[in-house]
Amino acid sequence: MKIHTVTGGAGLRLHVREWGKEDAPSIFFIHGWSQNHLCWKNQYESALAEDFRLVAMDLRGHGMSDAPLEAGHYTEPQLWADDIAAVIDQLNLASPVLVGWSYAGYIICDYLRAHGPGRVAGINFVGAATTMNKAALGALIGPGFLDHVIGATSDDLPSNIEAIRNFVRGCTYSQLPSDLFEMAICWNMAVPAKIRAALLAREIDSDDMLTALTLPVLMTQGQEDTVILPAMGRHLLACCPQATASWYASTGHAPFLENPARFNDELYHFARDDHFHAVEPVLP
């Protein structure tokens, strides 16, 4: 495992880790709202590291990356786009496959809009959000997020802790092992409430970016996801008809944690460019 400090948008320092073979095809993991690179533990400690260069970052404001509290560091799409570009450039990632969970769907679209798709081999959207506006609340973004967002963005610590515990519990359909659940609580609580709130102070419509995509796309979605609803996955597929859909039954918002063996196998084949034979779509 190697640790890097990457200079991202507007000079902010980003924490990045990598595993696997430096000269192998690269997979770049991008986590979601209030998470960090640790959420990909079942991927970077798997057989994927034998055949790929695996890279995972802590987003600005998360984990071990710089976390200024001013909202402006999180509301400008160019900053998010430049962060992704900086990791690709400074680590010399050759045509990485981007794997984006949840809020990372917005960030990947920010990157595509600002820098284009030319440096990327493919995209795996995992329970990914691409639209954020009032109309999306309840229709595309569900109660697994909305029921906890007020407490999770509050400066009142007891409210914050209760909301994050309930949010993490609601991210999966079945209960996580206790050690993983406890670790997830810790990495979520490491993100200041003000930063969680700032990430939500945007209005985002990525439909034009999805419609224009010609890259290989894999859409991975839990059928029991109450955080980012399956309707968001269907919306992505409607915008991006060449995408391959992989629906996970009895699975919530984190297929890579709930069914890592299947997730890793599908990602392996997707990144090896034989993904159209790897995924057996199950319609919800």
UniProtKB/TrEMBL annotation:
Single GO cellular component term: membrane
Highest taxon of the lineage: Bacteria
Swiss-Prot/TrEMBL keywords: Hydrolase, Plasmid
Domain called AB hydrolase-1: residue spans: 27-265
Pfam families the record matches: Abhydrolase_6
GO MF term (any one): hydrolase activity
UniProt KW Membrane keyword: no
Protein name: Alpha/beta hydrolase
Naturally occurring in which organism (per UniProt): Rhizobium jaguaris
